[in-house]
Amino acid sequence: MKNKILSAVSLLACGVAGAQSSSATLFGVIDAGIARFSASGGAHATGLGSGGNGTSRLGFRGIEDLGGGFSAGFWLEGQLNNDVGAGATQNTGLDFARRATVSLGGSFGELRLGRDYAPTYLNMNQFDAWGQRGLGTVETTGSSRGGVGSYTRSSNGIAYFLPADLGGLYGTVQYAFGEQLSNKTAVANAAGLSNSAANASTERTGSYRGGRIGYARGPFDVSASYGVFQDAVRNAGAAFYAGDYRIANLGASFDAGFVKALFLYQRETIGGRDAVPDFGFQTVALGATAPVGAGLWRAQVARYSQSNSRNDFDKYSVGYVHYLSKRTQLYGDLARLRNKGAGTVALTNLSASVNAPVPTAGGSSTGYMLGVKHSF
Predict the structure, then answer these.
(1) Is residue 153 part of a domain?
(2) If DSSP codes are grouped into helix, strand and coil, which group holds residue 196?
(3) What CATH number has the domain bearing residue 132?
(4) Are the C-beta atoms of residues 319 and 135 closer than 8 Å to each other?
(5) Is residue 318 within 8 Å of residue 298, measured between CB atoms?
(6) What SS3 string covers 274-294?
(7) pLDDT band at residue 8, thresholds of 50, 70 and 90?
(8) Domain range for residue 262?
(9) Rounded to whole angstroms, how far apart are CA atoms 257 and 163?
(10) pLDDT at 13
(11) In a domain, 16, yes or no
C-alpha cells in the first residue's frame, strides 16, 4: 500500500513538473546595406545603413507552462544600429525600448503588461507591403507628423489580446499610463525635451487608449483600429501645446497566391490652439507582393495629404527580396518621393548614419539600397 502511495505521489510530481516546463530563447536580426540618396537641387548622400529590410535587434523571450491551459511569458527586445555597433541611436548602448513585456495567457486570450506596439501601429504595419521598414515603407516621414512624438509604441501599457481560435476574428485593446512627473524640469530631463516642450505637457501626456479589431479568413483579411495619445505635445513653429493626437486606420488584403494586394487608409488629427490651426494628415496606400521562385517582388504607391496645406506628396516604391535560406535574405529597394507645393519631405527610413538630403521646395527625392538580412 505504501509503495502504491509513493508511486502515485511520484506520478503527480512528474505531472506538475511537466506542466511547469519553461523555455527561453535568444533571437535577433542583423541587417545592413549600402544606400544612395539624391534630391532635387543636386545634393547626394551615400553610406552604410542598418535595418533596410528589417530592424536590426537583439532580444530574449521565454514562456512557462503553468498547467491547466495557462502560461506565463516575457519578451525583452532592443534595437541595434550594427553599422556603428550601437543601440537605437549612435550615442547609446542596447536598451529594450522595442518591447519589454510580461504576460499571462490561456483560453481567455493574453494579458500583456509593459512597453509594446500601439494597436493603431500594428494595423499600419500589417497592410504595408514593406512591413514598416525600408525605403518603400508607408511610414515615410517617421514619427514627427503633426509635430508630436512617436506613435509607434506605448510605455506603461496594459493590453488584452483575443484568443486565436475565434474563427478568424482577432483584436486587441490597450491602455497606457502617462505617469508624468509633477516637476516639469524633471520631465524635460527624463524625456530629452526642451523646457518649453515640458511646460506644455500635462498629467495626461504620454497616456494612450486604443484598440483594433479584424477578421481573417482564407485569402481575405480586413482590420480597423483607433487610438488616442492624450495631451501629446505638439511643436507648431516656436509654440508648444498639448492636444489629443488621434489616429484611425483601415486596412485590407487579398492573397490570390500568385499576388497579394494590400490597401491602407489612415487619418491622423490633432486640435489647434489659439492661432495654430488644426492638424490633419491622410495616408492612402496601395501595395502588392508577388512570390517568384526563391524571391518576392513588392511594389507600392502612396499619397499623403495634409489639412490646411498644399504641401502634399506622393511616393512610388519597388523592391525585391531573394531568400538564400529561411534565415538569410538579399534585398534591393528603389523609391521616389515627389513633393507638391512648397513641401521639402526627404526620402528616408534608415538609421541616422545615412541622412537623406532635403530636396528643394516642391522637389523630389530618390533612393536605392542593396543589403543583406540575417535572422537568428
Answers:
(1) yes
(2) helix
(3) 2.40.160.10
(4) yes
(5) yes
(6) CCECCEEEEEEEEEEEEEECC
(7) very low
(8) 21-375
(9) 27
(10) 38
(11) no
